[in-house]
Design brief:
It comes from Grus americana. InterPro entries: Immune_Signaling-Apoptosis_Reg. One of its GO terms (biological process) is meiosis I. This is MEI1 protein. The chain is 66% helix and 3% strand. The chain contains 15 helices and 2 strands.
Length: 302
């Protein structure tokens, strides 16, 4: 089925949302819900379809070309198509790298536009933000180097707002700039305040990958980002809700992140003791799977 569905997508236009959205969902599902052997073949089939990749390029660009919806919570057919497009491309990036699959057509994206889609959200629905954040994480995991994706230069319309990469820090973080890093971190923190489970999972994972990327590029920058005082206010905000327990997956993963990069001004011995106390009193067998995994990683880090 991959052949006819992918060929059908390649013959569509980005505005054919009613047909494209379920088709892209099928391709995404085919990549994830199959055996490793079949997965490798599926990736090869999709990456050999030049028309499909050209269509995906046009779909992603619609993210910043179309005007924001009047109702941000409402997921229109166009927004649903964008979600499917970003998630599919993120998966293709991941699996192309894993299997070193031959690429017949590259995708070209402006990094500034991708970052601005998260930083300047303009009433984007939560599911669309989740999809773009997932893509951004996939790109960070590959250090912006992929035979499938080409990162083009800074958008000239935004050039006046961006610092020139003349500093040693900007050169080390290329293609990111320090100003972009801090804007992205603040935006991801703000998204966490929404306390949406799906969004929180994607944002925390992206923060983890971002700091890992920074640590490889410039350890001082990574430690500086991880120790920003605003992180502590973020933790208090996340705990100041209906669930004041530290045993929330996103809180545990953030705590683990700060421990890993020795941000003692963010997480103190007091918080560590509170988490250990809550874990002692909890019925571990009844904890959700996401919480169990996050608690395991936290304890290993401690």
């Amino acid at each position: 089925l991959l052949f006819p569905v992918s060929n059908l997508c390649g013959k569509c236009r980005p505005r054919d949302a009613d047909l494209l959205q379920p088709s892209l969902n099928f391709l995404y599902w085919s990549l994830h819900q199959t055996t490793p052997c079949s997965q490798q073949r599926a990736v090869a089939v999709l990456l050999s379809n030049v028309s499909l990749l050209e269509l995906l390029q046009k779909v992603l660009e619609c993210t910043w070309l179309r005007s924001p919806p009047s109702q941000p919570a409402y997921l229109s057919p166009e927004d649903a198509l964008l979600c499917s497009g970003w998630l599919l491309v993120a998966s293709l990036l991941l699996y192309q790298h894993r299997y070193n699959t031959e690429v017949h057509q590259t995708l070209s994206l402006d990094l500034t536009e991708v970052l601005n889609a998260v930083i300047f959200r303009k009433k984007k629905p939560i599911l669309l933000l989740v999809s773009i954040v997932q893509f951004l994480r996939a790109v960070l995991r590959q250090n912006f180097s992929s035979s499938l994706l080409v990162i083009v230069g800074q958008n000239t319309a935004q050039g006046a707002m961006q610092p020139q990469p003349s500093s040693l820090q900007d050169a080390a973080l290329h293609p990111l700039a320090m100003a972009q890093v801090f804007s992205l971190v603040v935006s991801l923190q703000n998204l966490l305040v929404h306390k949406d489970l799906l969004l929180s999972q994607a944002v925390v994972a992206c923060l983890e990958t971002l700091v890992e990327y920074l640590y490889v590029k410039n350890q001082d920058v990574a430690l500086h980002v991880a120790s920003q005082p605003w992180h502590r206010f973020l933790l208090f905000t996340l705990l100041n809700g209906g669930q004041k327990s530290f045993l929330q997956p996103e809180v545990l993963r953030l705590m683990t992140l700060f421990l890993r990069y020795q941000s003692s001004n963010i997480i103190s011995q007091k918080e560590i003791t509170q988490i250990l106390q809550e874990a002692t009193e909890a019925n571990l067998a009844e904890l959700p799977e996401a919480t169990s995994r996050a608690l395991h990683l936290f304890l290993c880090q401690v």
